[in-house]
Specification:
The protein is of the alpha/beta class and 478 residues long. The protein has two domains: 301 residues, TIM Barrel, CATH 3.20.20; 105 residues, CBS-domain. It has 16 helices and 20 strands. Strands 3-4-11-12-13-14-15-16 form an eight-stranded parallel beta barrel, surrounded by six helices. Helix 8 packs across helix 10 and helix 11 packs across helix 14.
Length: 478
């Protein structure tokens, strides 16, 4: 990557401060761009769901891995629960989505409480593991809440074999105008469901899968307590990457934790962070990190910079840390600060192998929280920072009341924030489509067929706040 005048600016830059200049390109189509990462995680998209309790759960992990990304299960989750999540995610189908399953005698109230948890907004009614009907929120409208779903369900309009070509499933859905196709195995047992958009995505994305064909996911471990013991348990559970995580990564406890993890001889990538300097990056790589997480304070739920004055504008942090990591044969993840697809493209241009996304994905059907409505009927989910009072209370639940109260006095981050679902993009896959469209187009503008070529060919300029505003679309005319 280079700047227009050939010199790096004297002051640090955020993503909003820069723009990318088009270059001569021989890339004819955005579909000719390969977005696979080179960080050893096996991801085919450069997207990582941040290890935040309000965002990264098994549902998110399944969906994102099916499209090629990676989800990091938070360090606060008990190891036995993580093991269950790993088993669940790795057993999911690579094409068909996991459905909500109901028995015919379950109530409409139960259906309405579960259907909003899926972007396809439907449930499959089964008897003896075989699908006998499909029920949607629309089917339950103005129906007695104690009525049984068997009375309101409709027979599946499209039933396909588990090995059906996604294009054929799309054509069948298009012809019948059905919302979902129901997939069954050779014995007629339910396998999953597929929407028209899901069928299209199955032809556009490559799932992130391990050697056994299971979907990939990662898990985090902190730097306190029995780090080696928990890391060993996570590795035994089958995680595909191990993230050693703390807010201030350039410290002795992190270096000790990294050495303890590396002593286990893990056969998966070890990620560590967070840092924002070349010095911090080199320290983590030399202690055993394959990938370094970069970012202090840019996250939407983070108040670190306002509370402490500590942090660094994210683009400059990524640029410096990526250069230091590359010199040691390692990689970086850009963690935080992305609010638009352009930000992801710029982070990758600066040298990040992948970009971590947190709050942006909180307001989706796949995040773990319950779907709520405000007084205007707008759907939202509640998100919170991992250093907030809410997260600290959960993390210290086994400690004494005195120790919990003392730690509760010093918290950072937002404990409750409404993350509204975009009616046009309510699912995480909708956001992945938007991000990948922007990144692929950015690559074509730069003349790059891969992320490595994007980093090599990106030409950036520095702009004023007015320059950034000029690039924003107008919701209404002037």
């Amino acid at each position: 990557m280079e700047f227009l005048d050939g010199r790096r600016p004297a002051h640090d830059l955020t993503y909003d401060d820069v723009f990318m200049v088009p270059r001569h390109s021989a890339v004819a189509s955005r579909y000719d761009v390969d977005l696979a990462t080179a960080d050893g995680t096996g991801a085919t998209l450069p997207l990582v769901v941040a290890n935040m309790t309000a965002i990264a759960g098994k549902r998110m992990a399944e969906t994102v891995a099916r499209r090629g990304g990676l989800t990091v299960i938070p360090q606060d989750i008990p190891v036995e629960v993580v093991a269950d999540v790993v088993g669940f995610v790795k057993s999911r189908h690579l094409v068909f989505d996991t459905p909500i399953v109901l028995a015919p005698d379950q109530t409409v109230a139960e259906a309405l409480s579960l259907i909003p948890k899926r972007a396809h907004r439907a449930a499959v009614v089964v008897r003896d593991d075989a699908p006998v009907g499909v029920v949607s929120a629309e089917d339950c409208r103005e129906v007695d809440r104690f009525a049984q779903v068997g009375a309101v369900m409709r027979p599946p309009a499209v039933v396909v074999a588990a090995d059906e070509d996604p294009r054929a499933a799309f054509d069948a859905l298009e012809q019948t105008r059905a919302a979902v196709a129901v997939a069954v195995d050779g014995e007629g047992h339910l396998v999953g469901v597929l929407t028209r958009a899901g069928a299209l995505r199955a032809t556009l994305y490559r799932p992130a899968v391990d050697a056994g064909g299971g979907l990939r996911l990662a898990a985090a471990v902190g730097v306190n307590g029995d780090v080696a013991g928990k890391a060993a348990a996570l590795l035994d559970a089958g995680v595909d990457a191990l993230v050693v995580d703390t807010a201030h990564g350039h410290q002795d406890r992190m270096l000790d934790a990294l050495r303890a993890v590396r002593a286990l001889d893990p056969q998966v990538p070890v990620v560590a962070g967070n840092v924002v300097s070349a010095e911090g990056t080199r320290a983590l790589v030399e202690a055993g990190a394959d990938v370094v997480k970069v970012g202090v304070g840019p996250g939407a739920m983070c108040t670190t910079r306002m509370m402490t004055g500590v942090g660094r504008p994210q683009l400059s942090a990524v640029l410096e840390c990526a250069g230091a990591a590359a010199g040691l044969g390692a990689h970086v993840w850009a963690d935080g600060g992305v609010r638009h697809p352009r930000d992801v493209a710029l982070a990758l241009a600066a040298g990040a192998a992948s970009v971590m996304v947190g709050s942006w994905f909180a307001g989706t059907h796949e995040s773990p929280g319950d779907l709520l409505e405000d007084s205007d009927g707008r759907s939202y989910k509640v998100s919170f920072g991992m250093a907030s009072a809410r997260a600290v209370a959960s993390r210290t639940s086994t400690e004494s009341a005195y120790d919990r109260a003392r730690k509760g006095l010093y918290e950072e981050g937002i404990s409750s924030s409404r993350m509204y679902l975009d009616p046009a993009r309510p699912g995480v896959e909708d956001l992945i489509d938007q991000i990948c469209s922007g990144v692929r187009s950015a690559c074509t503008y730069a003349g790059a067929r891969s992320l490595a070529e994007l980093h090599e060919r990106a030409l950036l300029g520095v702009q004023s706040a007015a320059g950034f505003t000029e690039g924003r679309p107008l919701a209404t005319s002037w």
